[in-house]
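REQUEST ID: PR-0412
SUBMITTED BY: lab tech R.K.
PRIORITY: routine
TASK: structure prediction, single protein chain
INPUT:
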Amino acid sequence: MRWLVAIVVLVAMPACDRAASTPPALLLTAPVSAPPYTAPTPIDPAAYPWLVGRASVHGALVDRFPCPPGHVRIAVSPGSFAHWLRGLPLKAPGAPVLLHDGRRKSADVAAAVVDIDTGTRDLQQCADAVMRLRAEYLYAAGRNAELAFAFTSGHACRWDDYRAGLRPRIDGSRVSFVRAATADASRASFRRGMDLVFAYAGPRSLERELLRREPIEAAEPGDVLIEGGSPGHAVLVVDVCRDASGRTLALLAQSYMPAQDVHVLRNVRAPELGAWFRLEPGPCPTPEWLFHARDLRRWSAP
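STATUS: complete
OUTPUT:
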């Protein structure tokens, strides 16, 4: 699995720390609906490797969030990132969002908490959580050659290299990878490698790696709303449903600053939609960041 990214500025940078402004409420507009989706039950630890050795008993994302009336989930391909995201294991209803140091997040913006570790360091922030979920999917799927992310400097950090013992040597803006550790393809090694990516990548580097998706109503699970920069922010589209007129709703997941549990966002501006957000031209406000339709991106492979 390749998964290390390119570095454009090799300093761990606070990624997401600007609050969203409050634009007018969005109207509902989106594309045509598709057949309903059947959740993968029970949750398979082989598909979500961080669960190996323990049970996740509180259900999958797809079971927790039914579509609003008149909408159905769009069709996705079995084995795709979109399909995998729908099966994400969740913590018990009402579970709080915890920061990396164990404190509770003060802002009440979560509809559910994803049952995945954050780590004890202030690393897995916004774009990091997006990369973590993408990496976990590729890791579980055995797609090692694709498991790579770019540092802010633009230098590629690849899982295949990391597990072979290569580590970055950083000299100012220059980065080279040298053999500095014994080969280790273990799960623990994978997790340490992701922390390395989190330290040297962020919204700016991830935005450069992704492809633009237009129009926003064509969003699919696995797409990313992202604004690069410092600060910047990113949220992951984890599910999509549409009505007969093609109007699109999406579930969005994020981490934030400081590093915290990955959580599904609650729609605080349109509480009647629960955790679903309207995707349409113009502003796309989330509880802690204001995105726009132009900010939607997709991966180069499903």
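NOTES: The chain has one domain: 49-298.
REVIEWED BY: pending
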